[in-house]
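Hi R.,

Quick one: here's the Dihydrodipicolinate synthase family protein sequence you asked about.
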Amino acid sequence: MKVTWTGVYPAITTKFTDNDELDLPLFEKNLKFQLEAGIEGLIIGGTLGEATALTDEEKKTLIKSSLETVGHTIPVLLNIAEQTTKEAIRQAQMAEEHGAHGLMLLPPMRYKATDYETVEYFKAVANATSLPIMLYNNPVDYKILITIDMLDELKECSNIQAIKESTRDITNITRVKNKFGDRFKILGGVDTLALEALLMGADGLVAGLVCAFPEETVAIYKLAKAGRIEEALKIYRWFMPLSELDIDPQLVQNIKLAEVYTGIGSENVRAPRLKLRGKRREEVIKVIEDSLATRPTLPEYKEIEILS
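And here's the predicted structure, written out as tokens:
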């Protein structure tokens, strides 16, 4: 299946049972809601998917479950977040072997690689698989900035096709577009900058709160791309308090709690993560409940024609 790198790609949460095993029925329930809302791709095993807490077998199971649920309707991507080049290559090849349609690739974890080392890492993984790749540019959380000069070296890898733009610097989208034109697709990767990213030319979104609010997220994307900015802005302003739950160290717990309130998830996380408690839990619940109390009526967004 061809990955077009357009539309909304949920960084889907991994569902766990009370016994800390994969909760596939709940995972599939959430994914069906995402499909119905109109997502155009899926990322499993990302930060929100508790990537570093998953075993190889669990990743394989999630790929299989995702493929069975979505059929041939949308591409399924596996996130690669590893400490060594060797392990990243192994994970990429495992994903390809088990039917994934693409990869999201982070820079090396823990070790703060130099620009040269990061480029060589990306090249090695890209050259070891035929799967299309989206690089994850998030220096705020992962301390490595993928620069324009680095992208200039990476453009020779034809399967490096997209960038998840999470620098928090919205002008970076323009810099990449000015330098490379359409060579790299760009997907906005920060919920609190989603509309801004789309207006600056991002081709899609990798989103977090979409896990709990898929319709609103896809509606913002579709309206923005159709030039119906005022309608998109109205929903986006309503969404902002929820979106801020995505730029928090406990974003996984925040978003899983929101999924509980919308009926498509559970709070179960894998230790060392623990469920929210105390004052912070009360604060997050208030944000969710206030948002649900003022939830907007959406326009008929699914049939909106996207402007080219």
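Residues 7-293 form a domain with the TIM Barrel fold (CATH 3.20.20.70).

Cheers,
M.
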